[in-house]
From TrEMBL, chain A:
Keyword annotations: Cell membrane, Membrane, Transmembrane, Transmembrane helix
Membrane topology: Multi-pass membrane protein
Lineage: Bacteria, Pseudomonadati, Pseudomonadota, Alphaproteobacteria, Rhodobacterales
Matching Pfam families: BPD_transp_2
Matching InterPro entries: ABC_transp_permease (IPR001851)
Residues annotated as transmembrane: 12-32, 39-59, 65-84, 96-113, 155-175, 195-218, 274-295
Identification of the protein by name: ABC transporter permease
Cell membrane recorded as keyword: yes
UniProtKB/TrEMBL annotation, chain B:
Any coiled-coil regions, as ranges: none
Keyword Transmembrane helix: yes
A Pfam family reported for this protein in Swiss-Prot or TrEMBL: BPD_transp_2
GO cellular component: plasma membrane
PANTHER family (UniProt xref): ABC TRANSPORTER, PERMEASE PROTEIN, GUANOSINE ABC TRANSPORTER PERMEASE PROTEIN NUPP
Designated name of the protein: ABC transporter permease
Keyword Acetylation: no
Cross-referenced InterPro entries: ABC_transp_permease (IPR001851)
Length: 313, 350
C-alpha cells in the first residue's frame, strides 16, 4: 500500500503522465477535427508513423527540432489530402481508405527509413527536445514541477486544446465546421462549401496526428524504429468517442489514459509474479472499456461517415 | 467536373479494374525504386524471377500465398456483410496458439495423423472465431463500433501469445528463446513437394476459397449476409435476421483467420512465436479489396501479393533496394484499387 502511495506522490510519475499524454493529445485532436466535419480517419496509425519518421529524418540530416515538427506536420497534411480526395469528392469507403493510408504510410516510412539507414544494428539517435523550465512557475512545489518542466511540444499540445475548443465553439469557422459534420446539406444552403471545409479539416487533423508521431521520435524517444507507434493511433480513435467529440474532454481522456499507462509502468517494477504482458495489455483493454462505457452516450456527429454529393440525398 | 453513376458497370471494366490498379501501384512504386537509384524494370524483372523463376522460389511463393488466401477470405467474407473485421492479425495468432495448446494434450498427440490434424485445424478456427465474436457481441449488445475494438484486440492477442509462450507453453529446449512447445509430429501437415516448405495447407486454403464462394453465391445464408451488407434496414424489413446473420459471418470470418494461423504453425513453423506473422492479417484486408471481395478472386490477389513479397526479398539482396518496397506496392494497390472500382461505377462528366 505504501508503495502505491509512493508512486502516486512521486513527481516523476506525474511528469510522465503529461509526457505520455502528449502524442495522444495531438492524435485525439487530429481525429476530433476530422470527425467533427464528418470523416473517419483511420489513416492515423500510419500518419503518426510517417510523422515520427519524417521528424526524425529531418533532424538526423541536420534540421533543427522545430523544422522536424513542421516537416512532419506538412507530410501529415499531404497524407490527409490523399485521404480527403478519396473520401470527400469521390466518397469512397472511409474505413477502407483509412486503413489503406495506414498500411501505405507505415510501409513507406519503413522503406524511406531503410534507404536512409541501410545497415545499422541500433537505430541512429538525435538530440531530442529538452524540458524547459519556466522561470518562477517551475519552482512552485509539485504542481509547478510537474506542469512547467515539460518539453516545448507538450506546451504546444496543451495550447492546441484551448485553441481548438475556442475555434470550434467561438468562431464562425468553427460553426461552419461543426455544421458540415452535422448536416452538410444545411451548411451548403448557407453558402458554406462542405467539400472544401472537409478537405481542409482532414488536412489539418492529419497534420496534428503526424506531429503526435514526431513527438515520439523528437521528445519521448530519440530515434525511429518500426512499429514504434504501437497502436497509439487506434487508441486516439477510441479516446475521441470517449470524449464525445469535445476537445476539453479529449484532453481529459488522454490524461486519464496516460495516468493508467504511467501507473502500470511503475507498478510493473514493484509487483512481482504478475506477467508483464498483462500490464502491457491494460492500455488496449482500457480503451475498449472506454468505448463500451460511452458507446450509447456519446453524441456522434450526425453526418459521420456519410459522403456528401451536392443534390444527392 | 462531376461524377455520374453508371447504370450497369460493365463486366469488362470490373475485371480490368484490379489489373489497372496493380499497374498504377507498380508505376508509383517504380518511382520510389528509381529514387533509390535502381532501374525499376530491372527490379520488377528480379522480383518475378525470384518468385517464379526457380522451383524453390515458386514453392516459397505458394507457401507465402497460403495464409494470405485465408486471411483474405476472412476480410472478404466480413466486409461483404459490412462487418469491419480488422482483427485478422489477432485471430491468426489465436488460431496458431490454439494449435500449440492442443498439441500439448497427450491424447491429441497420440491420435493418428489425419485425426490429430483435423482436431488441431478445428481448434485453430474456433479460437479465431472467439476473438471476433467478442467484439461482435460488444457491437450487438452495446453498440460499440467493431473497427476500433478488433484493431485493439490485435495488440492484446499478440501480448497474450507472448505471455503464454514465455509462461506455461514455453519450450524448455529452445535455449531461452520465447517460443511454444513444438506441435507433435502427428499434427504436422504433409509436404506437397520434396525439399521445399510447400505443404498441404495450400490445398486447404484453395478448398476453403471455393467453399466460401459456394456459400456466398449458392446458399440462403450467403444471400442474407450480402443483403445485410448492402442495406441492413431493407434486409431486416425483408425478414433477414440481422444479428444471427452477423454472428454466422463472424464465425466464418474469424474461423478463416484462425485457420490461417493454425495452418502456418502446422505446415511451416511447427511452433508459435510472436514473429509468426509478417502482417498476414492486415495484408488480408488488401487482398480482399483487390479481389473486389470475391472469394475466388482472393486466390489471384493472394498470389500477386505473395509474388511481390517473396520476389522482393531476392530482388533486395541483388539491388540493395529495401524489401519494404513490396509492402509499399501492395498497400498502394489497395488505394489505387479503390479508385479503380469507383471509376467502374461512375463516369466523369465535364
Amino acid at each position: 500500500m505504501s508503495t502505491l502511495l509512493d508512486i502516486l506522490s512521486s513527481i516523476g510519475m506525474w511528469e510522465a503522465v503529461l509526457r505520455i499524454a502528449t502524442p495522444l493529445i495531438f492524435g485525439t485532436l487530429g481525429v476530433l477535427l476530422c470527425e467533427r466535419v464528418g470523416v473517419l480517419n483511420l489513416g492515423i496509425e500510419g500518419i503518426m508513423t510517417f510523422g515520427a519518421m519524417v521528424g526524425w529524418l529531418t533532424v538526423y540530416s541536420g534540421g533543427d527540432l522545430w523544422t522536424g515538427m513542421l516537416a512532419a506536420a506538412a507530410a501529415g497534411a499531404l497524407f490527409g489530402l490523399l485521404h480527403a480526395l478519396m473520401t470527400v469528392p469521390l466518397g469512397l469507403s472511409q474505413h477502407v481508405t483509412g486503413l489503406g493510408i495506414t498500411l501505405f504510410a507505415s510501409s513507406l516510412s519503413y522503406y524511406i527509413f531503410r534507404l536512409a539507414v541501410p545497415t545499422a544494428s541500433s537505430p541512429p539517435t538525435v538530440e531530442p527536445f529538452r524540458p524547459i523550465e519556466i522561470p518562477g512557475l517551475s519552482d512552485i512545489p509539485f504542481v509547478g514541477q510537474v506542469l512547467f518542466s515539460q518539453t516545448p511540444p507538450t506546451y504546444l499540445a496543451l495550447a492546441l486544446v484551448v485553441l481548438l475548443a475556442w475555434g470550434l465553439y467561438r468562431t464562425p469557422l468553427g460553426l461552419a465546421l461543426r455544421m458540415t459534420g452535422e448536416n452538410p446539406h444545411a451548411a451548403d444552403a448557407q453558402g458554406i462549401d462542405p467539400i472544401l471545409l472537409r478537405i481542409g479539416a482532414i488536412m489539418g487533423g492529419s497534420a496534428l496526428m503526424a506531429m503526435g508521431g514526431a513527438f515520439l521520435t523528437l521528445a519521448a524517444f530519440n530515434s525511429f524504429f518500426p512499429t514504434m507507434v504501437q497502436g497509439r493511433g487506434w487508441i486516439c480513435v477510441a479516446l475521441v468517442v470517449f470524449a464525445s467529440w469535445k476537445p476539453a474532454r479529449a484532453l481529459l481522456g488522454a490524461l486519464l489514459f496516460a495516468f493508467f499507462d504511467a501507473f502500470q509502468l511503475r507498478l510493473q517494477t514493484v509487483v512481482d509474479g504478475v506477467p508483464y504482458q498483462l500490464f502491457l495489455m491494460l492500455p488496449y483493454l482500457l480503451s475498449i472499456l472506454a468505448l463500451i462505457l460511452m458507446a450509447r452516450r456519446a453524441r456522434v456527429p450526425q453526418a459521420l461517415m456519410q459522403p456528401y454529393r451536392r443534390g444527392e440525398r | 467536373m462531376r461524377f455520374e453513376r453508371r447504370d450497369h458497370p460493365s463486366r469488362g471494366l470490373t475485371l480490368a479494374a484490379p489489373l489497372v490498379a496493380i499497374l498504377a501501384a507498380l508505376l508509383g512504386a517504380g518511382v520510389l525504386i528509381a529514387i533509390a537509384g535502381a532501374n525499376p524494370l530491372e527490379a520488377y524483372r528480379l522480383i518475378l524471377k525470384g518468385a517464379l523463376g526457380s522451383r524453390l522460389g515458386f514453392s516459397e511463393m505458394l507457401t507465402r500465398a497460403t495464409p494470405l488466401i485465408l486471411t483474405g477470405l476472412a476480410a472478404a467474407v466480413a466486409f461483404r456483410a459490412r462487418l469491419w473485421n480488422i482483427g485478422g492479425e489477432g485471430q491468426f495468432y489465436m488460431g496458431a496458439l490454439a494449435v500449440a495448446a492442443f498439441g500439448m494434450i497427450p491424447a491429441i498427440a497420440a491420435l493418428p495423423a489425419p485425426l490429430a490434424i483435423l482436431f488441431c485445424l478445428i481448434a485453430g478456427a474456433v479460437a479465431g472465431m472467439v476473438l471476433l465474436l467478442l467484439p461482435l457481441g460488444l457491437r450487438l449488445k452495446f453498440g460499440v463500433d467493431e473497427v476500433v475494438t478488433t484493431l485493439l484486440l490485435n495488440f492484446v492477442a499478440v501480448l497474450f501469445v507472448s505471455l503464454m509462450i514465455e509462461g506455461p507453453m514455453k519450450d524448455p529446449l529452445a535455449f531461452g528463446w520465447p517460443q511454444s512447445v513444438p506441435v507433435p509430429d502427428s499434427a504436422l501437415l504433409p509436404k506437397l513437394l520434396e525439399r521445399t516448405r510447400l505443404h498441404a495447407g495450400l490445398v486447404i486454403a484453395v478448398v476453403m476459397a471455393v467453399t466460401v464462394w459456394w456459400i456466398q453465391s449458392r446458399t440462403v445464408f450467403g444471400m442474407r449476409a450480402r443483403a445485410a451488407g448492402l442495406n441492413p434496414r431493407a434486409a431486416s424489413f425483408a425478414g433477414v435476421p440481422l444479428g444471427r446473420t452477423l454472428i454466422m459471418v463472424a464465425c466464418l470470418s474469424g474461423g478463416m483467420a484462425g485457420l490461417a494461423g493454425a495452418i502456418e504453425v502446422m505446415g511451416v513453423k511447427g511452433y508459435v512465436s510472436t514473429d509468426l506473422s509478417p502482417n498476414y492479417g492486415y495484408s488480408g484486408i488488401i487482398i480482399a479489396m483487390l479481389a473486389n471481395l470475391s472469394a475466388l478472386g482472393v486466390i489471384a490477389a493472394a498470389l500477386f501479393s505473395a509474388v511481390m513479397f517473396v520476389g522482393a526479398d531476392s530482388m533486395s539482396r541483388a539491388l540493395g533496394i529495401p524489401s519494404y518496397i513490396a509492402d509499399v506496392t501492395v498497400a498502394l494497390s489497395l488505394l489505387t484499387m479503390l479508385v479503380a472500382i469507383f471509376l467502374t461505377q461512375y463516369r466523369i462528366r465535364k
